[in-house]
Amino acid sequence: MEQFISVKTMIQRFADWLVYGVFGMSAETHFGSAVNFFFYDSVKILILLFLISMVMGIVNAYFPIDKLRHYLTTVSYTHLTLPTTSRV
Asked: The pTM is what?
């Protein structure tokens, strides 16, 4: 099982290499830990934004806006109305 390395571990290794190796900060200081966390979280957020953009691009390609607009204008919504209640 040592062959499988999770994405989280890869991102953490990259952040550790960048902050502690390239920038030469110490892992024992609060500032070094904060910078490490900043890079770790920033990379995660960028990956998530990329994935969301890819999914939305696929959704946009398979659900063209013109067909969706036509469907929404032709469907009857009378079965979705709430029954009226009488107040006594």
From this structure: 0.63
